[in-house]
Amino acid sequence: MSVPHTVSTAPDGPEPELVARARTGDREAFAGLYYEHYRLVYSFLLVRTRDRHLAEDLTQEVFTRALRRIDAFTWQGTAFAAWLTTIAKNLYLDEIGRGRTRLETPVAEFRDPQGAGPGPESHALRELEAVEAHETVRSVLHALNAHQRHCVQLRFLDELTPEETALAMGRSVGAVKTLTYRALQKMRWVSGGVSA
Question: Does pTM top 0.85 for this prediction?
Answer without folding.
Answer: no
